[in-house]
Amino acid sequence: MANNAVTNFHANSRLHFIGSWRARYDVFLDAKLAQKQHDSATNRTRDVASTSRATPRTIFHVDMDCFFASVAMRARPELSTETPLAVSWGTSASKRGEVSSANYAARAFGVKAGMWLDEALRLCPELVLAPYDFAEYEKVALEVYEILFEASRGECVGISCDEAFIDVTSRCESEDAVAVAEQIRRDVYAKTKCACSIGIGSNMLLARLATRRAKPDGAFRVEPKDEREFIAKTRLADLPGFGRHAGEKLQKSTKIRVTDTCETLLKVPVATLKSALGAQKTEKLLEAARGIDKTPWCVRPQRKSIGAQMSWGVRCASNEVAMDYVKQLVREVAYRMQRLKIRGRALNLKLWRAIPDVNTMRDYQGHGACDVLTRTKAMRELSNDTELIISEALTILRELNVEATSIRGLGVSITKLEHGAETATSPGAKQPTLSQMFAKRTAEKATHEEETCVLAASDEELAETESEGDDDVADTQSQLTQNDCDFTLFNSQAEIDSDRERSIRDAFEAAARAYAWQRFELGRLKLSKRRRDTLSEDEYARRACARAADVIATQARRSYAQDGETGLNALLNDARALCRSQELLHETYSSQGAAFIAAWLDRVDSVGKTIVIGSSSL
DNA sequence: ATCCTCCCCTAC
DNA sequence: TAAGGTAGGGGAGGAT
User: Which GO CC annotations does the UniProt entry carry (predicted)?
Assistant: First the structure.
């Protein structure tokens, strides 16, 4: 049971969404930069990835105001802006969980992000709670990025789903910076119904600090003549990179508090700071305290590591279970590497080991008090091959020699990466067929079908023929519930044990829907012309889904008959890959389709993991 | 000297 | 106590 919680959490967690933002954004960036190269044939080529800025620039720091809460608000048009609302995993009944984001009405009651829900409800009993909606955050974020790219002609550095820097130096030679910022803010609001704030400064640091003054829903510029004064009065806690531990160390050795200003810090002997914080950190801190920021401007930084970890609900009854967790993590990482065409040379295993006798039984699912161990190993070869990485990872796990029952979390990450390399060709790598599948979007002509992916039924298989008559309509209709299709993938109980049937059916249902939507939206999934004319678009899409599910069910049965469990797992991997590939298709899809597919992706993802982990820990 | 490993710290 | 993921940078100290 605990494993279900793990996998569901993993796919639905706010931290996972935030942490994996870069990967989603990269897909968008690639499309953007490719388009830009195309533009440069007609326009003048511009330096997209310039690495440093010596001269003063005009930098905007664009930050969405209480992003998750704003997105939640637009889904609830009946609420006035005066209604306090918070996004949280918990409900007002359970009062468990933390506030992830609170709108400004809620903040007026003292409700803040990070606060426990029971406290938030005590401060503000009428607080409206909204669930996470990751698909929607992604959609809004990319809409905002679209605007920022436009406004800055591609000079946009994405920080997260709700935050970015843009360089508008050249544009602000002829236009007033604040006016430009206000225009961007209006554009963002018009497109997304979400407010953002913009800080303006001569470098990224000053722009970021300016945003603090701009919020909420405003713009603020640090004028060049005011920079000295501005930074001098800035609190140390506001400087980026200056966290809790740095604050404590500083206070211990210098009596300076994080609430003191940069001005104060500069009076401290440099040697004192260095012994407390280290040379590099001191250097950076002192630069920041003078308003200097030498961070390179890089629109598309190269990824240096890629990994996945789990430290929630991890409980291992035996070594085999621990090995299964590791295998599952490696599959996730290898899959991402294959999709991104990245290979690596070094493997890092991270393991949370419970500290004996410390709060041991108090945990429900959390990792509790732990030592965190990490081990690095050079891999036999530059690779992104699932099996190779699994064997290397299991070697490390064995060498760490940790009692399985004390393991509270595991992580796998790959470093020393090489980009753009060819993908592993070993048997495990079925996914490339999917990249082939979706590479076609950008391909000049829509030649289809070297698709060997199990789920990728040919269009012919999916297409209904004109000759199918009204009987078929009735047939299909009988399979439809009021709002949805009925996806029966496994008809016989004997085909698969009933415990797992439900999960697998769920996964394939989601996969089938995603698949059908892709085809539908690409205009390649066709019902008969007559039917298309008589059905509403919604109804048409539903039938198309039902049709696709049917074909996939047949394939699933065939695959199970042929390869048993192995065949099913391969199918599940494909299902996950298929749904994930929606990330590649944002530009092609309608927003409705993209949102649907994103939701199904989550389901396939979690069901897929549940099955693999669950089956091996039975 | 320089690199590497195993941490620690930070941001979002 | 509590949905504790992903990624980057740096330091100490050992290996080369």
Answer: nucleus
Q: Does domain A303-357+365-420 have CATH number 3.30.1490.100?
A: yes
Q: What is the pLDDT of residues A239-285, one digit of tens each?
A: 998 888 999 888 888 888 889 999 999 999 998 898 888 888 899 99
- Please report, rounded to whole angstroms, the spatial distance between the CA atom of protein residue A473 and the C1' atom of nucleotide C5: 47
Ordered by start, the domain boundaries in chain A are 1-35+57-220, 231-290, 303-357+365-420, 535-617
Q: Which nucleotide, over all strands, has the C1' atom closest to the CA of A277?
A: C11
Nucleotides of C under 7 A from a protein CB: 1-12
Q: Which CATH superfamily is domain A1-35+57-220 in?
A: Reverse transcriptase/Diguanylate cyclase domain (3.30.70.270)
**Strand B bases contacted by the protein (CB, 7 Å):** 4-12
- Mean pLDDT value across residues A535-543: 56
d(CA A487, CA A538): 17
Q: Is there a contact between A27 and A584 (Cβ–Cβ < 8 Å)?
A: yes
pTM: 0.69
What secondary structure, in 3-state letters, does A257-320 show?
CCCCEHHHHCCCCHHHHHHHHCHHHHHHHHHHHCCCCCCCCCCCCCCCEEEEEECCCCCCCCHH
Percent of chain A predicted with pLDDT > 70: 62
Please report, rounded to whole angstroms, the spatial distance between the CA atom of protein residue A63 and the C1' atom of nucleotide C11.
Answer: 32
Question: Would A1-35+57-220 and A231-290 be classified into the same CATH topology?
Answer: no
A18 nearest nt, CA–C1': B12
